[in-house]
Every structure is written in C-alpha cells, then in structure tokens.
Amino acid sequence: MIPFNKPYCSGRELKYMEEVCHSTTMSGNGQFTKKCHKFFEEKYGFKKCLLATSGTDALEMCAMLCELKPGDEVIIPSYTFVSTALAFLREGAKVVFADSGAENPNVRSENIEPLITDKTKVIAVVHYAGVACDMDAIMSLAEKHNLLVVEDAAHSVDSFYKGKPLGGIGHLGAFSFHETKNISSGEGGMLVVNDERFIRRSEIIWEKGTNRAEFYRGMVNKYGWCDMGSSFLPSEFNAAYLWAQLEQLDDIQNKRKHIWNMYYEGLKGKIDSEITIPELPEYATNNAHMFYLLCPSLDYRTKLMGYLKEKGIQTTFHYLPLHSSAYYQDKHDGRELSNCDRYGDTLVRLPLFYELTDDEINIVINAIKQFRI
Ligand SMILES: *Cc1c(COP(=O)(O)O)cnc(C)c1O
Questions:
Q1: Is 122 strand, coil or helix?
Q2: Which atom of ligand 1 is nearest to the CA of 83?
Q3: If one looks up domain 13-246 in CATH, what number appears?
Q4: For residue 108, how many C-alpha atoms fall within 13 Å in the half-sphere facing its CB?
Q5: Helices marked H in the chain
Q6: Contact 105, 76 (CB under 8 A)
Q7: Residue range 67-89: average pLDDT?
Q8: Cβ-contact 355, 113 below 8 angstroms
Q9: Average of pLDDT values for 8-13?
C-alpha cells in the first residue's frame, strides 16, 4: 500500500529532545524556541515570530489581536479547514464566506469585495496548497476599506508571492506544523506579526496575559497580569523536534518539489482529458505542499479513488465546504458558492511525502494514466 502521507523524521529529533531533558527549561520560550523564532525571522524577514501549540492556536492569537467586537464581520474562504473560521467565531465575530476562484481554490479579491460592509474588520486568506493568493489586489482592497489581513499560511512554509514570503504579507500570519504539513512537530504552529503595532500585545497574549517575555529580556523588573491571553506557547520538547526539521528544510523542500514535478510531468497531457492538473499563477512559487487533481464530477472522483485504492494507492479528498457544514449552514446567508462546492466534490490529493520513492511515484502515475471511467 502506498499511503497518502508519512510524517518526515530527520533523525535528530530525539537527540534534541534529550538535550531538553538535561536542560533547565522544559516549558516554553527556551533555547530551542528562540532558535526556531530566529530561523524564521532571519530567513524570511518576518518581524516577530511566536511558536504556538498548533496552527489553530496561532489563528486564535491572530483573531484576538484583531480586537473584534460582537457583530464585526470577517471574510474568509469557505473552502478551508475549520480552524480558520473557529478562531474568529470564538472572538464573537460573524464569519462571511467568500467563494474560491475558478482556477484554484484560493479566494480572489473580486469575490471578497462585494462582501465588504461597514461591519467588516478582517479579511482572512488561505494560500491553498502553498500557492499564493493574489496579495497585491487583496492588500489594496484592505487598505481602501481600512481592514486587517490575516494570512492562514498553514500550507505555506517557504513559499512566496512576487518574492515576498507567504505569512509575511498581511498584518498577521499563522503557520501550522501539524504532521500533515511540510515540516512538523506533531502538533504545532506559529504566529507571525508583520505590523509592529501588534508585537507587544502578541507576546502578552502568548504568555497567559502577562508581560513575562519582557521580564525575561530584563525590560521590566517584575511581571504581572496585563491583558487577555492563554497558554499558547509550546514546550521546549516540541520546539526541539521542530528545530530538527527546520535544519533540514531545504532538503525536505527539494525532495517534495522533485515528487511534485514528477507528478506534473508524468500526468500532464497523458491522462483522461476530463481530469485537470493544477497550474500555478505566474506570481506564485510552488512549495510542493500538495499535488491535487480535479475530477469532472463527484461520481468520477469516487470511482477514481476507489480504483486507486484497489491498486494499493491511498488518496484523499479535502475540505468539506464550511458554509454548508452541520454547524454553520443555518448561520450562512444562503449565497451559493459554486466554485467552493466544486472543489469540495472533485478535488483529490495524491500521496506526497519525503520518503516516497520514484518507483512509487511511477506506480501512481501509471495507474492514473490507465484509468477510464
Ligand atoms: C492544518 C490547517 C490549519 C490548522 O492547523 P493545526 O496545526 O492542525 O491546528 C488551519 N488552516 C489550514 C488551512 C490548515 O490546513
């Protein structure tokens, strides 16, 4: 069986976690946490990074920093993971779902603009599969209407829009290091603060509403309770695990891109012409987070996935549109989001992980080539 995913392990994870065992700091914000922050701040020029216990928690910190009031509206894609919506709902905001574009699952500024009202405070975008949304158009829309932009960059480590790193373009960004992402710590995430106005408060929210981070830096001589917050920081064990992966980031990315390119070259123009293969916009880089196919219908996808399963190949579909979920369908305003529904019905993801061999990739390619409904 060729599995859909297998978490990557660099081999140094246990060594670094053992170092934590023998050190004086096992809770958060120790040496490995600082190394991870520095890595991202230096490599990508992010102003401020704070590791979090998950991408969901990083999004929750973003939502808290936006200081939403009940009735405020946040525009988000419907084709995304639940956490993008949950973070803002927990702050009492109303979530307004935007449709995806026709060419890929990303939201487009044309789909966002008509949803802006005088209650709108935030636009949250998801760079699906690590492929950038058209950020120039979205940022100028935000500027025109005085809105904040939160980038859900959960898929987007080491990916760029016109040379700018994803997660570093909006006012705030959130990464995930869940085991299904390019680099992982089992569960993990990171908040990125790009607008300086939010830096001080982000550290306080991160440290249970206290100014402990400033105290550790010697900026204040005692620390206390100053604001809302929670325990968003991960332990040093998680940071040590993540560090072992970050050290291998270039190797991981090169391997994933090799797999992605093999799929692309092997499938393009060589399979049932009813299946669509992703093409990247010219402004976006490929971080090879995912390789997906778009089938002509739900029935076609069900048959293709069943056929591949019989051949020992595990594939998966992806998001169920949030606007028609059991939890939200009664709260949604009833607008049809037809592109989102289409991705919900027809998108299928192929196996893509570090240890996937060329032979296995060819097995997948050949199986899809032979498939006819
Ligand atoms: C994975 C993911 C999240 C949540 O990240 P966790 O680390 O699992 O909490 C949020 N948004 C998107 C788009 C994701 O893919």
A1: strand
A2: 10
A3: 3.40.640.10
A4: 13
A5: 13-21, 31-44, 55-65, 82-89, 109-112, 135-145, 199-206, 212-216, 236-246, 249-267, 298-310, 338-346, 358-370
A6: no
A7: 97
A8: no
A9: 94
**Residues carrying CATH 3.90.1150.10, the chain:** 249-370
For residues 98-111, average pLDDT: 97
Report whether residue 178 contacts ligand 1, using a CB cutoff of 6 Å. Answer: yes
Tell me what the mean pLDDT of segment 13-42 comes to. 97
**How is residue 77 written in tokens?**
């894609």
Strands 120-126 and 73-77: parallel
Q: Is 83 in the pocket of ligand 1 (CB under 6 A)?
A: yes
Q: With a 6 A CB cut-off, is 79 part of the ligand 1 pocket?
A: no
User: Which tokens sit at 340?
Assistant: 């989102």
**Spatial contact of 51 and 246, defined as CB atoms under 8 Å apart:** no
Predicted confidence (pLDDT) per residue in 161-177, tens digit: 999 999 999 999 999 99
User: CA 212, CA 203: separation in Å to the nearest integer?
Assistant: 8
Cβ–ligand 1 contact at 46 (below 6 Å): no
Give the residue among 158, 150, 162 at the shortest CA–CA distance from 191: 150
Average pLDDT, the chain: 97
Residue 373 has pLDDT above 90, yes or no: no
pLDDT band at 45 (very low <50, low <70, confident <90, very high): very high
Give the DSSP letter string of 31-57.
HHHHHHHHHHHHHH--SEEEEES-HHH
Does residue 154 line the site of ligand 1, with CB under 6 A?
Answer: yes
Identify the pLDDT of residue 291: 98
Q: Does domain 249-370 have CATH number 3.10.20.310?
A: no
Q: Report the nearest atom of ligand 1 relative to the CA of 187.
A: 7
pLDDT of residue 362: 98
Q: Is 336's pLDDT higher than 90? A: yes
For residues 316 and 306, the answer to whether their CB atoms sit within 8 Å is no
**Mean per-residue pLDDT, 222-248:** 97
